[in-house]
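Why do we bother with holo predictions? Because pocket geometry can differ from the apo form. Keep that in mind while you read this record for 4-O-methyl-alpha-D-glucopyranuronic acid.
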Amino acid sequence: MSLPVPVLSEGVDPAWLPEEAFRALGGRRILIRGSGPLVETVHAEAAEACARFGGALVSKDPELVLESTGDDESEAFTLGRRDGRTTVTASGGRGLLYGFFHVVRLGAAAFEGERQLREHRPALAVRMLDHWDNVAVHPVMGQVERGYAGGSLFWADGRARGDLERVRAYGRLLAACGINAVAVNNVNVHAAEARLLTDRIGEVADIAGALRPYGIRTHLSVTFAAPMVLGGRETADPLDDGVREWWAGATARVYEAIPDFGGYVVKADSEGQPGPFAYGRSHADGANMLAAALRPYGGTVHWRAFVYDHRQDWRDRATDRARAAYDHFVPLDGEFAANAVLQVKHGPMDFQVREPVSPLISAMSHTALAVELQATQEYTGQQRHVCWLGPMWSEVLRFGARDGLPFEELVAVSNAGDDPFWTGHPLAQANLYTFGRLAWRPDADPGGILDEWIGLTFPGAPGRLADGLRSVLDGSWRTYEKYTAPLGVGFMVQPGHHYGPSVDGYEYSPWGTYHFADRDGVGVDRSRATGTGYAGQYAKPWAEVYESPESCPDELLLFFHHVPYGHVLKSGRTVIQHIYDTHFEGVEEVERARKVWASLADVVAPERHARVAERYEEQLRSAREWRDQINSYFFRKSGVPDGRGRTIY
Ligand code: GCV
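The structure, written out:
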C-alpha cells in the first residue's frame, strides 16, 4: 500500500516542490507498470498530480509511461518521447523515482516534440547529507551544531520527533534533487546521541522508515569509544577481540532494526573526539574494525579525514594545519577496507570562502573517497547572507577531474532545519538543491542548476523575477569573498560562533589558523622552498603552480605565500589596493542586490519577500562591518593609504 504524498503543515514552504511544479503532469493519461515500495511512491506522486490537475492513471493509451521492469537497486532510468508518448523506464523502483522527478523538472517540455531515448545515471553512487543535529540541546552548540535554520528536522525535546510527516516531506525534497543518503546526527557524538546506536536505535528506525519511501538510506554518527561508553569495556582498541565482538553484536542489532541501514559516520581523533591514536593504532585499523562489523550487511563506514592538532602553539611555525589530513592519511593509502570510505573536506582547512582543493583527494588512488562540502554556511554568512555556493563547489569538483573523478561519493553538511523555509534564508534552499544536482552530475553547469531551481521554486515566474533571482544569487559567492578575508588567507572570523569579522580572532589561538600580518606584509608561506612545504603535497602541475607567488593564482596568493603589501597581483593591482578595492566593491554589490530584491516585492510571496529583505539588512550591516574592520586593520598595519582616498578608519 502506498502512503499518500506528505502534507506540509500550514506555513511550511514547499521549496522546489510547490504544487504548481506538477502542473505539466496534469490532464495526462499516465500508465505505471511495476511493483515494489518505490514504484508505490511514484504511484502516489502521479495520483496526487492527477487529483490536483486532472488526468488519470490508466491501463491503455497513455501519454506518459512510467515503467519499472524489475526490482534491482539501480538508480538509472531512460527517458524518451515518440508518437506523442513520453516513456520513462528503469530496472527498479529507485531509477523510476528519479525518472519521475526528472519529468517534473522538465515540466511541459517533457510532453513536447520528439525526444531521443537517453539513459540518465548518477555519476556518484552515494549522495549524502550529514546532519550535525544533536538529540538533546547542547549547552554551547544548541540543537544543531552550526545550524542556521531553526531546530532539527529529526530531533526535538530530547527524542525523535513523534510526527514524522515533516521528515517524509524532507525525504521527498531530497529525492527530487537526487540525494540518497542522510546521516541523522552530529559527528560530535555526545552522551545521549551515543545511545542511538544501542538502546535508542528504535528512534533512528522510525526516521529511517520515514525517509525510505523516497529512496534515502539512513546513516548514523557513532563514537569510537562506544564499547566503553555503552558497552562497559575497558578499552576501545580496534585490535582487541572483545571490542571487535562488541561492534559486531551492536551492528547486528542495528540491522535487525533497520535492514537497509547505510552505515556509520566517524569523526575520530579530531577536536576532542576519541579515536585509535589512544591505543597506538592507525586510522586504517580503526576504520577497518567498523568496516568488518558492517560488511556482512553491505554497510559502509564513512571515516572522516578531518584530523589535525587543535592544540597547536601559535609560536610554532613548523606545524601547518593545512598539511595535516594528507600527512595522516597518505601513508595509509591501500590499507582501508573496500567498505571504508575516507571522507575528506574539500579544502585543507575548514570550509572557508576560498581554499585550494585538498591535495589528499587526488593522492588516495587505492582508497574509496567521499568529498565533503558544507551546505550549512558556517563561514559563508550563516544563512543570513546570500551566498550561493554552486560555482565554488563546481570548481572543487572539476579540479583534477581530467582523467575521471578522483572520488566516488559526495557528502554535504546539511543546511536544513525545522524553519518554515527549511534553510533559514529562503535563498539558501538553492544551495541544498544545487548540492543534490551536482552530486548526481559533478560536471553539470551550476548556472543551469540555478535556472532549474528557479524554474521549480517559482513556477511561471515572470522574466523579471527569474532575472532578479539569477542576478542576486549568481555572483553572491564572489561578493561574499570580496568583503571578507582576502586572497585565500581565510578565517578572520569571530572565534567560537564564526560569524562576523575579527581579524586577529584566531591569530594567537591554538587552532592553527593564522595570517601572519605585520607592518610589511601578510599571508602564510606554504612553499616547499621557504615555507611549510604544503605546496609540495600536490601533484604536477599544481605543486609548481602554487610554489611561487608569480604563478600562484591571485585568489589563493595569501594561502600559499607571505608577500609585501606592495606585491603586484596578476590583476595589476597591489595586494593592499586589492584589499581596499574588493572590500568597497563587495559592499556596493550587496547594496545593489538588496535593491534588486526590493524591486521584486510585487512578484514574490509576502512572507518570503519579507524574510529575505530582513536578511539583506543584516547582510549589509555585516558587510560594512567586515569592510571597515579589514580595511582599517590593513591601513593601520601597512600605513599605505587607499589610492582612491575613500574613508578608512
Ligand atoms: C562538527 C569545524 C566546525 C565544527 C565541526 C567540525 C567538523 O571545526 O566548526 O563545529 O564539528 O568542523 O567538521 O567536525
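The chain has a mean pLDDT of 97.
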